[in-house]
Design a protein that fits this description.
Strand content: 15-25%
Structural class: alpha/beta
Number of domains: 1
Distance between the termini: 35 Å
Helix content: 25-40%
Number of strands: 12
Radius of gyration: 17 Å
CATH architecture: 3-Layer(aba) Sandwich
Order of helices and strands: EEEEHEEHEHEEEHHHEHEH
Strand order of the largest sheet: 3-5-4-7-8-11-12
CATH superfamily: Alpha/Beta hydrolase fold, catalytic domain
Oligomer: single chain
Largest sheet: 7 strands, mixed
Number of helices: 8
CATH topology: Rossmann fold
Length: 282
């Protein structure tokens, strides 16, 4: 298993399809002790992609490092919205909190570990909910984007029943449609960011400085799906500007959107071991 990066759907590109409708998969350590919990969040393919057998090494590696794990589908599963637009952050956090209330979990030690669209979600959850205090965002964004897998121009998320401000990379833009031929969708997102005003960027910016714990970003320098390297750098600059008091790191990979591999997983595991597991023991 060389690469373990989940799939993503942007524009009309379907890198893979999700046939899994399982809402959640858990792999909790059962040794009579309470362990930290890591919540895995897949990309914009929907369903619960990370519950599939090919992603089992993520569960096993995190368990080996002392963390219980759950993968959570947030749309396109049996008990979640079928549409990816205006998903309630409160409803997603509520489901995470229910998992964290297990007698096998230390519910003061919860991390979210998201990929691509799930990285956007992970950063938002860390920004807005005290129940989550460690964030790993793989191929992240510094702003909220429009909803995926829908032709309507809507926000991806709501908070307090209000849609979050967002930057729109339209499904039917020329750059997005061109990507269906070239396989490169990053120009569509770069164009959307370039057209956005400074105010629009600030309104859509994910306020990750409100998070109360360490943040790890993993990006790809040659990302063909969206500009994760540049957007991760924007998150880093923002946290530096805000004098963020917790540890924040950026692993920049050579390669494209699916460059996350076993070596990177080991780096993520060590980060979580150092910060999440260690803090739960103190």
């Amino acid at each position: 298993m060389k690469k373990i990066m989940p799939c993503i759907l942007v524009g009309l590109l379907a890198a893979c399809s999700s046939q899994n409708t399982q809402d959640v998969k858990t792999q909790f350590i059962d040794d009579g002790q309470k362990h930290p919990l890591v919540i895995l969040l897949g990309g914009s393919d929907g369903g619960n992609t990370l519950a599939k057998p090919q992603w089992q090494p993520i569960f096993d590696r995190l368990n080996e490092t002392g963390m219980s794990v759950a993968s959570l589908g947030y749309f396109g599963t049996d008990s979640t919205p079928s549409n990816a637009a205006e998903l309630s952050l409160e409803e997603i956090e509520k489901r995470i909190s229910l998992l964290a209330n297990s007698d096998k979990i230390n519910n003061n030690c919860v991390a979210v570990f998201g990929f691509s669209k799930g990285a956007e979600l992970a950063l938002l959850l860390g920004s807005h909910f005290d129940s989550i205090n460690h964030v790993v965002a793989v191929m992240p964004s510094h702003v909220t984007w429009n909803a995926v897998k829908t032709v309507t121009d809507k926000s991806s998320w709501t908070l307090k029943n209000q849609p979050l401000a967002y930057i729109s990379a339209p499904l039917f833009s020329w750059q997005m449609q061109k990507g269906n031929v070239t396989g490169k969708f990053t120009p569509a997102f770069e164009q959307a960011l370039g057209k956005a005003t400074e105010l629009e960027i600030e309104q859509a910016r994910i306020p990750i400085d409100k998070n109360e714990g360490p943040v790890l970003l993993v990006s790809a320098k040659q990302d063909e799906i969206w500009p994760s390297y540049d957007m991760a750098n924007e998150v880093m600059k923002y946290l530096e500007k805000q004098d963020y008091e917790y540890s924040f790191e950026h692993i920049a990979l050579e390669g494209g959107h699916y460059a996350f591999d076993r070596q990177t997983l080991n780096q993520v595991s060590e980060f979580l071991k150092q910060h999440l597991v260690a803090s739960c023991r103190s």
